[in-house]
Specification:
Helix content is 15%, strand content 52%. The chain has 172 residues and is mostly beta strands. The protein folds into two domains: 107 residues, no CATH class; 59 residues. Strands 1, 2, 3, 4, 5 and 9 form a six-stranded antiparallel beta sheet that branches. It is elongated and about 65 Å long.
Length: 172
Amino acid sequence: MSENRSVHAIFTGVKPVEQEDLVGVMLTFEPQRSRIVTETIEDFAELGTDQDVSAVSGVGKVMRILRCARISAPRTPDAYMDKPLEACALLERAIGVELLLELKARSRVHFSVWTENGVETVRNVKEVVELEDGFLAVPFVAPFATFFSRKDIVRQNTEVERWYDVVNIQRS
């Protein structure tokens, strides 16, 4: 289990996101003084209409950034719910503020196999087991593993996708 990492970062941008099943803002941070986290950090703050955990967490992120930038926010947190444009307008005033982010490292593995018939990819793989006669890709959520016979494989590749989730935001 990985532990959380604290990183000083500058809040550099915000974009509203309004899709059919996704409402919120995309937050962008530029890490400072870090040898480990060097790439731009992007984090989505959900502001959907349902008051579920992800929406409450998203509103919390917006409010913490505004508080760190010393920008007065609406009295009730639900003023941001389902209103990414209004949240974006306030957050644009906070661009440039230095924050202390608490990050959790995340990763996802994908296994791809090239055969004479094309390319097959198993996403969100828990593990890939190399057997004598092939490979067994065990996904996290699917009910069964996928077996690829070694005699049919032209090439195989395991790809790791890594990112950071922002779990806390404080004034730097």
